[in-house]
Amino acid sequence: MRSIAISLLCLGCLALLGGAAHLTLRACALDLPRWMSVPGACPAPAETRQAVALARLDAQRSDLLQRIALAESQLSRLQCDAAGPDPHRALDPADWRRGDLEALYGCWDLSTGYQTRNTETGDEVGYPAWQICFDAKGNGLQKMRDMDGVACEGPVKGGFTEAGALQIEEAENLPCGDGGYIHRREFTCTATAGAASCDTLQPETGGRMAVEFRRSAREL
């Protein structure tokens, strides 16, 4: 009986040793026959590599999504303004003939003399400085300064006729800093050698004068 008990004890030890060896082999990722597989044992090397690759791709995807979100946030804060026409470009007669209002864009200085006559006293007043500045839609602002430094300022509107002539209109009399004014004028202009040659008419008084404007490098 004693020998039988010892034999059984030895068999039990062998079984424990075999189980431990089996688990050790699985932990070391050694391939075993299917009949020796144990639930919960270490995955095969191919499965491990695939899991690592999937985890790496998932991390890259998360990083890219974060970068896209950041780029979209930065883009939404950007404001893009279209570049306007060059205010100093030479006058192009072709643009003028097409009636392109951008041909007026920028400031224009009087390059000839200009005088007005006081309807009450008959005195003539000379204006050595007269500038008209237009936006790209033909809306403008004119500034005049007489010999005594008195300034007159007000809006104008430019537009082209079907015949290709430029018409500039004042909505009302042009007010001046000394309390006086210049009677409302109408301009009819043509493009000649890089300049705008204009005939001015004061409908209320019938006064007329020819003047010329050229592009200016600065505003008054």
Protein architecture, described:
The protein is an alpha+beta fold. The chain has 2 domains: 2-76, no CATH class; 93-215, Lipocalin, CATH 2.40.128.120. Helix content is 29%, strand content 30%. It is built from 3 helices and 12 strands; from the N terminus they run αααββββββββββββ. Strand 10 and strand 11 (195-202) form a beta hairpin. It is elongated. The N and C termini lie far apart (126 Å). Residues 1-32 have low confidence and may be disordered.
Question: Care to give the gist of this entry?
Answer:
This protein is of the alpha+beta class and 220 residues long.
Q: What is the helix/strand order?
A: HHHEEEEEEEEEEEE
Could you please say which CATH topology of the largest domain applies here? Answer: Lipocalin
Q: Which CATH class of the largest domain applies here?
A: Mainly Beta
Which oligomeric form is depicted?
A: single chain
Task: Please outline the helices and strands.
Blueprint: H1 2-27, H2 45-76, H3 93-98, E1 106-110, E2 115-117, E3 124-126, E4 129-134, E5 139-145, E6 151-160, E7 166-170, E8 174-175, E9 181-182, E10 186-192, E11 195-202, E12 207-215
Antiparallel strand pairs: 1-4, 1-12, 2-3, 4-5, 5-6, 6-7, 7-10, 8-9, 10-11, 11-12
Which terms summarize this structure?
220 residues; alpha+beta; 2 domains; disordered N terminus; 12 strands; eight-stranded antiparallel barrel; elongated; Lipocalin; two-stranded antiparallel ribbon; 30% strand
